[in-house]
TrEMBL record, chain A:
Protein name: sn-glycerol-3-phosphate transport system permease protein UgpE
Quaternary structure and partners: The complex is composed of two ATP-binding proteins (UgpC), two transmembrane proteins (UgpA and UgpE) and a solute-binding protein (UgpB).
Keyword Nuclease: no
Record's bilayer topology term: Multi-pass membrane protein
Gene name tied to this protein: ugpE
Lineage: Bacteria, Pseudomonadati, Pseudomonadota, Alphaproteobacteria, Hyphomicrobiales
Protein task: Part of the ABC transporter complex UgpBAEC involved in sn-glycerol-3-phosphate (G3P) import. Probably responsible for the translocation of the substrate across the membrane.
From TrEMBL, chain B:
Homology family: Belongs to the ABC transporter superfamily.
Keyword annotations of the record: ATP-binding, Cell inner membrane, Cell membrane, Membrane, Nucleotide-binding, Transport
Organism field: Cohaesibacter marisflavi
ABC transporter domain ranges (all copies): 16-246
GO molecular function annotations of the record: ABC-type maltose transporter activity; ATP binding; ATP hydrolysis activity
PROSITE patterns, alphabetized: ABC_TRANSPORTER_1 (PS00211), ABC_TRANSPORTER_2 (PS50893)
Protein name per the record: Carbohydrate ABC transporter ATP-binding protein, CUT1 family (TC 3.A.1.1.-)
């Protein structure tokens, strides 16, 4: 009996395959709904800032709801930003110098340190590594005064180079940790094969290991850039000359409108401008940021 | 043309010499006082159980580890203090160790590029190696886009391009599946025939060792147990370890006692071949007989009783697992002789194939 039923089914199947519509799964529905909700939560402040930067001067002092411009788009906020002090381009240049300088210096130092910690044996290696990591636990605000004094002694206060050094110092513990892990993930045999091929010293780091730890380098550089670009407190304390201001410090300077009022429009415009390079950089680099290059090196 | 090939061969046949080589990692001695001579053009295989130091010995030859004491000579030149790239060697790793960010061609040519050779020369050499290994269609791919066997061929190609005196292989086939392993094994044998270089090959797979080697070096706990051709090691082991390690299934070991006209096993006297240093009668010894050297005894003759435990039919061969006396024993028999569990077979072994070992597991000859 069973056999007959089965062969009937088989025949039916060969005549026309059963149509499947795909089951509605409630958990996928919930999953997507939650994801959209979370995405909106993250996007909302950004959209808010961008929209309100286009409000007219009169409107920008109004209560912020609704956030979008009610009486037509206006770029007057950007005009006020542009006319503050030297041009906004000048301050962007300052910020760019600090951010690029910080990420370059961080990459170079953490690449060397990470390579050393991963591949060489030296006395007190473990202790040194833990010490470097433990500095992450110290809030840097608490050492801002000594840092300021130190920079002053070195004649680097009120300079962008001094700021680069401070940011790099703050960025290094995490970066060294990242780079050590990146080097650890490269199989030793690849380095040995390179030694067989006669590769030594710098060439090993640049031509063989470098490309393999590139995702780590990109991550470290990106983090350093974003943190330096957005850092406010140290820049505020260390920079006194208005022409040296970075963008976050410029924002506080710009916000003082007439008679102690706050110029929200100019602040929103500045914030919008500040976001753009970060987003461009992230979009360009996200592929190598995510990709693991070691795939296929060994089985 | 032929003359040219021969000439090339003679030039390339660089031998290798290890003189009292030891290696310690901290207080752990991994290689102990190893002396070894390898002639030019020989295919030498290091075998031994895991942890015996065979890979370390290869790495010492390669220069990836530094010897604690002793000398390494390649082509008559002391290279103990030389960098790996200056030793005239090339190595193929178990994990291939290809550069993942380079194409196949770049991988193979990288060593020459580092050495500062011209682009045309690099291309020519890579092209030749690719011809030998049939990699021409893959030169522009990256290692991630290749199968395991192809990756291993690229790794071998990288070694060939360097044109070394000595090839070193560190378990090159263990990451491949069984079928591919057989193919690659044949390919490596063919390569050796074609190039004629000295090759040193580390494996724990004794089939690879037996089929590839001109000379097998059996290692245990950092010491060389025996060096010899596959057939020497198989027929004439120096000690119980080599006897048990070479051959599959393993050599059977039974307890015996020396008697005037042979050796007594399980109450039966077996004839042995003439022994020079014969122990006194009554001395207990170990008797080693390989599974295929047992045969069914003729009716009525004295024979060793073998109690069948279970049987394995492998098509070409059949094995019976059981006991002689207290000791377990494996016997290779004809298909017709496969017997039920619990039945007893009468077995005999030829004098020529019986190996005797003393209580220190050394061979009695």
């Amino acid at each position: 009996m069973n056999a007959v039923t089965f062969s009937d089914q088989a025949m039916a199947a060969s005549a026309a395959p059963t149509q499947r519509k795909g089951r509605l799964r409630y958990h996928t529905l919930i999953f997507h709904a939650t994801s959209v909700l979370v995405a909106l939560l993250f996007l909302a402040p950004l959209v808010w800032v961008v929209l309100s930067s286009f409000r007219s001067p009169a409107e920008s002092t109004q209560p912020p709801i609704p956030p979008w411009p009610m009486d037509g788009f206006s770029i007057s906020s950007y005009d006020r930003l542009e006319n503050f002090g030297q041009s906004v381009l000048h301050y962007s240049g300052n910020s760019l110098f600090v951010a690029v300088g910080t990420s370059m210096l961080t990459i170079v130092v953490s690449l060397l340190a990470g390579y050393g910690f991963s591949r060489y044996r030296f006395p007190l290696k473990g202790l040194a590594f833990v010490l470097i990591l433990s500095t992450m636990m110290i809030p840097f605000q608490s050492i801002l005064t000594p840092l300021f004094l130190l920079l002053a002694k070195m004649g680097l206060q009120n300079t962008l180079i001094g700021l680069v050094f401070i940011y790099t110092t703050l960025q290094l513990p995490f970066s060294v940790f990242m780079m050590r892990n990146a080097f650890d993930a490269v199989p030793k045999e690849i380095e040995e094969a390179a030694r067989m091929d006669g590769v030594k010293g710098w060439r090993m780091l640049v031509q063989v290991m470098g490309p393999l730890v590139l995702p780590g380098v990109v991550t470290v550089g990106l983090f350093a850039f974003l943190n330096a670009w957005n850092e406010f407190l140290a820049a505020l304390v260390l920079l006194t000359d208005q022409s040296k201001f970075t963008l976050p410090v410029l924002m506080t300077a710009v916000q003082h409108g007439r008679y102690g009022s706050v110029d929200w429009g100019a602040v929103q415009a500045g914030v919008t401008l500040m976001m753009i390079p970060c987003m461009i950089l992230f979009l360009i680099l996200q592929r190598s940021y995510i990709r693991g290059l070691t795939a296929g090196a060994v089985k | 043309m032929n003359e040219q090939v021969n000439l090339q061969r003679i030039q390339r046949q660089a031998g290798l010499c290890l003189r009292r080589v030891s290696k310690s990692f901290g207080s752990v001695e991994v290689i102990r006082d190893v002396d070894l001579d390898i002639e030019g053009g020989e295919f030498v295989v290091f075998v031994g159980p895991s942890g015996c130091g065979k890979s370390t010995l290869l790495r010492l030859i390669a220069g990836l580890e530094e010897v604690t004491s002793g000398d390494v000579l390649i082509a008559g030149k002391d290279v103990t203090e030389e960098d790996p790239s200056d030793r005239g060697i090339a190595m193929v790793f178990q994990t291939y160790a290809l550069y993942p960010h380079m194409t196949v061609a770049q991988n193979m040519g990288f060593g020459l590029k580092v050495a500062g050779r011209s682009k045309t020369e690099v291309e020519e050499k890579v092209g030749q190696a690719a011809d030998v290994l049939q990699l021409n269609d893959y030169l522009d791919r990256r290692p991630g886009q290749l199968s395991g066997g192809q990756r291993q061929r690229v790794a071998i190609g990288r070694a060939i391009v360097r044109d070394p005196d000595v090839f070193l292989f560190d378990e090159p086939l263990s990451n491949l599946d069984a079928e591919l392993r057989v193919d690659m094994r044949i390919e490596i044998a063919r390569l050796h025939q074609k190039l004629g270089n000295t090759m040193i090959y580390v494996t724990h797979d004794q089939t690879e060792a037996m089929t590839l080697a001109d000379k097998i070096v059996v290692l245990r706990a950092g010491r060389i147990e025996q060096v010899g051709s596959p057939s020497t090691l198989y027929d004439d082991p120096d000690n119980m370890f080599v006897g048990g390690f070479i051959g599959s299934p393993k050599m059977n070991f039974m307890d015996g006692v020396m008697r005037q006209n042979g050796v007594e096993v399980a109450g039966v006297i077996l004839q042995t071949r003439p022994i020079t240093n014969r122990p006194a009668d009554g001395t207990p010894v170990h008797v080693g007989i390989r599974p295929e050297h047992w045969r069914l005894a003729e009716e009525g003759k004295t024979a060793v009783p073998f109690k069948v435990g279970f049987s394995e039919f492998l098509g070409g061969a059949s094995y019976l697992y059981g006991t002689i006396g207290e000791k377990s024993c494996t016997v290779n028999v004809e298909r017709e002789a496969i017997s039920e569990r619990g039945s007893v077979l009468n077995l005999m072994a030829d004098a020529d194939h019986i190996c005797l070992f003393d209580q220190n597991e050394r061979r009695i000859r």
